[in-house]
Each structure stands twice: as C-alpha cells, then as structure tokens.
Specification:
The chain is α/β, with parallel strands linked by helices. Helix content is 22%, strand content 21%. It has one domain: 3-Layer(aba) Sandwich (Rossmann fold), CATH 3.40.50. The chain contains 4 helices and 6 strands; from the N terminus they run E-H-E-E-H-E-H-E-H-E.
Amino acid sequence: MARALIIVDFQRDFTPGGALGVPDGDAITSRLNELAASEAFSLVVATRDWHPADHSSFARQGGPWPPHCVQGTVGAELHDGLDAETIDLVVDKGQDPATEGYSGFDATGLADTLRGRGIDALTVVGLATDYCVLHTAVEGVGNGFAVRVEAGATRPVEVSEGDGERALANMRDAGVELA
C-alpha cells in the first residue's frame, strides 16, 4: 500500500497571529516535520488556501470569515516552521470565489494526481480539524482512498465549543481511521 501524507493548510494566516489564526495551530509544527521526513510516505503533499481577494467566504462578501490566505500575500505562504524540503507537491485550493474550497480534493485534480502516482492510502494532518482537515479526509474516503487522520497533528478553529470533537466523530462515521 503506497501512502501519501497530506498536510492541510499549514499557512501563516492559520497560525497564531495570522488573519484567521487557529489556537495552538503552530504547536503541531514539529510533528508535521517529523511525519513529512518519515520513510512511511511515498509522497508528501501540502495544500494551501489560495483565495482571490473577492472570495465569497470573506465577511465583506457575506461569508463567515475574515479575509485570509489571499493569493500572493505573506499570509497565504506555508508556515515558516514547515520544512519545505520535505514537500513534494503543493496543491492550491479555494481559488473559485463562489465555492468554499475546504477540501484538498475540491477542483484541484488531487485524486487523479495521487492515483497517477500509485497512492491508495492517505494520512491527513494540519489545519483546521473542523473545516479543511474534515472535508479533505471525508472526500479522500469518497474518492476511494484509505484515510487516516492523526488527530494530534491537527488543531480545530472551534467557532463553537466542541466543533473539533464533532469533526473527529464525523470523520470516524465516514470511514476515516483516527490515530
């Protein structure tokens, strides 16, 4: 079984001090680097939100979020602590202003890329547990991959208390293995 590591949206805007900082989002840095350097993975993919300035998820467009991860800005860059040398592929998502773009599979061609490289199993980590990690993991299962989420290498936004735990339960119910 060939396994890929999917590091979801570990970007400056999603870590503390960023436009949409996830509490303790940077606390997973060393674990992400440890996993990315592991021989257990045939491929290491980093997804990143890559929104146009007029993205529908932004509050000024009627969405729930402050502007974040706008294409070409410092906030959209991968977090400085992530060892870029271990990343084989960066997949940009959320580029269509009319769609949420939470999943790494949403209009990115990721499933075909993974299959083309012989990948049949995924380990998903990153930010945020209750949004982009959730959607990427569940859509990974929907695309026929065996999916595992290492919960200790994710952090939730927690818009409402318990969102992170509910997201983990939803993943488990969808067939995602939790570690």
